[in-house]
Amino acid sequence: MLAAIRRSEAAWTRALLLQLLLAGPGGCLSRQELFPFGPGHGDLELEAGDDLVSPALELSTALRFFDKSNIRSVYVTTNGLIATSEPPAKEAHPGLFPPTFGAVAPFLADLDTTDGLGKVYYREDVSPSATQLATECVQRGFPEVTFKPSSVVVVTWDNVAPYQGPGKDPALEDKRNTFQAVLASSDASSYAIFLYPEDGLQFYTTFSKKDEDQVPAVVAFSQGLEGLRWKSDGAYNIFANDRESIGNLAKSSNSGQQGVWVFEIGSPATASGVVPSDVNLGLDDGTEYDDEDYDSVTGVGLEVVGTTPFPHETPRRGDAGTYNVPGDLAPRRLATERPPTPPTERTRSFQLPAETFPQQQPQVIDVDEVEETGVVFSYNTDSRQTCANNRHQCSVHAECRDFATGFCCSCVAGYTGNGRQCVAEGSPQRVNGKVKGRIFVGSSPVPIVFENTDLHSYVVMNHGRSYTAISTIPETVGYSLLPLAPIGGIIGWMFAVEQDGFKNGFSITGGEFTRQAEVTFVGHPDKLVIKQQFSGIDEHGHLTIDTELEGRVPQIAFGSSVHIEPYTELYHYSRQVITSSSTREYTVTEPEQDGAAPSRVHTYQWRQTITFQECVHDDTRPALPSTQQLSVDSVFVLYNQEERILRYALSNSIGPVRDGSPDALQNPCYIGTHGCDTNAACRPGRGTQFTCECSVGFRGDGRTCYEVEKTRCQLEREHLLGAADSQRPRPPGLFVPECDEHGHYAPTQCHGSTGYCWCVDRDGRELEGTRTRPGMRPPCLSTVAPPVHAGPAVPTHVIPLPPGTHLLFAQTGKIERLPLAGSTMTKTDAKALLHAPEKVIIGLAFDCVDKVVYWTDISGPSIGRASLHGGEPTTIIRQDLGSPEGIALDHLGRNIFWTDSHLDRIEVAKLDGTQRRVLFETDLVNPRGIVTDSVRGNLYWTDWNRESPKIETSYMDGTNRRVLVQDDLGLPNGLTFDAFSSQLCWVDAGTSRAECLKPGQPSRRKVLEGLQYPFAVTSYGKNLYYTDWKTNSVVAVDLAISKEMDTFHPHKQARLYGITTALSQCPEGHNYCSVNNGGCTHLCLATPGSRTCRCPDNTLGVDCIEQK
């Protein structure tokens, strides 16, 4: 099957390469062959300029697009795009694809018609001449379809220029592009026709205002944002997005005429994606090209025809993301066929990939007529891939890590697998698949043939025992297949109990591999070939397998039984190949005859090769032992004649090669006598000691485990994944939320195929202004505290702080202290200051007067404090909070200030939490870091709003608000003000920089670049100290020499949040609120050289006086 597909793909590639080489200039589309356009044909003209959008063009016939059937107007833009709804102003210039609105993009780029640099025409046309021309184009591309449009939308970009940015390129000065998009609609369906005339595309890239660089144009379709409550990117298709494929638009075609491209965009077949035509370019004369022809044609080199090789990625079942299938490699359909499945995202129909196959492995076994096979997924090693755009290739229960040459996936704690596929440790597994066979029995000249036979297997993982059943096996062959326990034994190897330092098949391959085996029966001329394809985990959480059996087996009499003794088998590992061979005996006992049951011992030789793909980018990953020993016992085989079911059962463990001494195998985890629940993992200890641990999703003592009630996130995932048809790939663009290890919505959600990430609240709703572009993850905070596990109670009182200056930093559920000796971190003396396991502490602030630490807790939410002299912590604010994050303290005026990113406001209150007043509640999206300059009466804060990140300042009374920094920011998280140097510094997780400025001076200084993922920052002496999410550490940076000096990794490797400096004494200075509360009755808020008396919110004010 796989070989047939590859042969078809190869032929298709050859045909496409021939198209380009044989198509001369005479076959190109001329400008006269475009749909008529211009004012004389009733066209409207888009206003000249840059990044402009037309008024709505009302349609007499509704446009159908993806799964929508009633689009009554469209909008035309300067930038080579037709929108199905009015584009937001912030998306007027080309940016990331897909946009938030529905889009048809024949050439999406930053185009310019300023000062007569070309024109953009558009109209709806119902004339017979226009509709007939559209009919001819569509029927050329889809000859099996009867389509008669009642109207067409014709949009022409005529001699438009590229936007060049600040530095104009003389080479592009006279370059102009002309192209056309036609949307043809009937009452039942809609089609798009893109036309690119000869010499119509003279430039392929334009200057991006966002990236400040030349970027290629994009040819694509997008459904826009979908969903009522949970909005996510709908389906989209990118057909060209690089120079080579854009350059082929006028040279090639998918409809049989050069420069003309046809797509079905609105019908029942396009609910999950646009359907491209696939008609050949004039090579339908039945001519066949052999390999010599192909070699002679391609000998000129692929670069001549502008092709770009890239791996052919096959979809993985159960993957939350999408997959890439080069459209030009798709086998051609018959004229009467509809597409077998919806097209995939990012189908690059214009890119003509070179024929690519997985790297050839050394020949290991000699199996007759074994077809070349591939792997189910492929790590792309052609160019460096990163997690940002490939996170969907990892399991939702895995983490993705970038390395110098690419990315790798690894399962998180509690799960096992290869990172691409992960399952809960100790959880029972199910394997489903199909078996087909063509088997000769004994000396019979007629084969027994069976198709579409079901295989089901159940695995008790913590015993390493697999139970496999193959149904509807004809009795003429059923008994003769009894010795072939290895058919199901491969499943036992996948989930064999692992001894320390050794890996079973699933840990190595993730259940994605190809297996080929050969069985030779000693003393018989009989040989059987077994081919199995394992395709990972499907939408229902089951592994999938396809098995093919072909050859001859010795005949075993009806009613016989077969016994197989325990055996061992050596598995030899080399890069991406596993081989094994062995000789096995089995005893056949025939039915009783004349009071005797004759039995005979038979032997067969077994050889197999397993081919898989591993991630080669992680050099730190421990190497697999070159040889591992699989030990198999309790082998049971049975054929049920009445039910026609063949059954195999085996117990398996994997470990080192042994001389036959079983001593080291006596741990109950290895021999299956542990008594752990079937939903628990057995953890071997020393000697015969072991523990039982319930699998993820279960609770209990390990001996007895019960299922935990599913959370809202888990139920949503099951609904989405269960809605996918298990017989076809998941629809492109489908977003499936990620849940954390406790079942709550992960605070950061990412779309597997687009690379966009955003923050969500505890109910999974997207938080405004948090969506980041691919390659950047927003600094989202979990608002749900982890469950408190039963165990010894942790004291919640503060452990008194020793004398001296300390760093205080927050981790989920606790605050730690790190003493400073001068500016040096005394790492050996770091200890917990306060345990609060039910809280998610984010921001920290320190009162140097009373020696009290203040914090924000987003799980409550609440604001609390505790004295460093010891005692119990107290909550001072718990009402009317959303997500309090940053917190700052004016030790002179005795006030606290905090940011709330959910309520989008900044507030102030007295140190005991009373007299609250909202300072700001407008023009805030994601406020986080906040600091005070107590002596001067200034307030500073960050807002990491993805659309417009900024650092702002005001007086402490809220007056004189202004933007301090707005340019060249990404995700400004942490902020600190050093009272001694009067310097404001911040760390930015988007630009990966630490920067500083003096507020009264315009210049800013880059202190350090290349930070990993900084979150919060504080300063003391000559150093900055910041917490880092990626390294889970506190990092010291010398401000004077711009160098990282030291790093502290806490014992608990969990995410670090806020950090502050607990000074041994307060900085010198005073403000006008220092003495007698500034004479104010309530809030005294300092300003430069003065103060303002303010009243709290929600008071009648009879005893409060406001004054300046």
UniProtKB/TrEMBL annotation:
Ranges for domain Thyroglobulin type-1 come to 710-780
GO annotation (BP), single: cell-matrix adhesion
Instruction: Look up the record and report any one GO term of the cellular component aspect.
Output: plasma membrane
- Which Pfam families does this one have? EGF_3 (PF12947), FXa_inhibition (PF14670), G2F (PF07474), Ldl_recept_b (PF00058), NIDO (PF06119), Thyroglobulin_1 (PF00086)
Q: Which organism is it from?
A: Catagonus wagneri
Q: Where is the NIDO domain?
A: 106-268
Q: Which part of the chain is the Nidogen G2 beta-barrel domain?
A: 427-664
What protein is this chain from?
A: Nidogen 1
Give the span(s) annotated as Disordered. Answer: 306-348
Q: Which UniProt keywords apply?
A: Basement membrane, Calcium, Cell adhesion, Disulfide bond, EGF-like domain, Extracellular matrix, Glycoprotein, Repeat, Secreted, Signal
The secretion signal range is 1-30
* UniProt entry tagged with the keyword Glycoprotein: yes
- LDL-receptor class B repeat residue intervals: 851-893, 894-936, 937-981
Source lineage? Eukaryota, Metazoa, Chordata, Craniata, Vertebrata
Record's SMART domains?
Answer: EGF (SM00181), G2F (SM00682), LY (SM00135), NIDO (SM00539), TY (SM00211)
Q: Where is the EGF-like domain?
A: 665-706
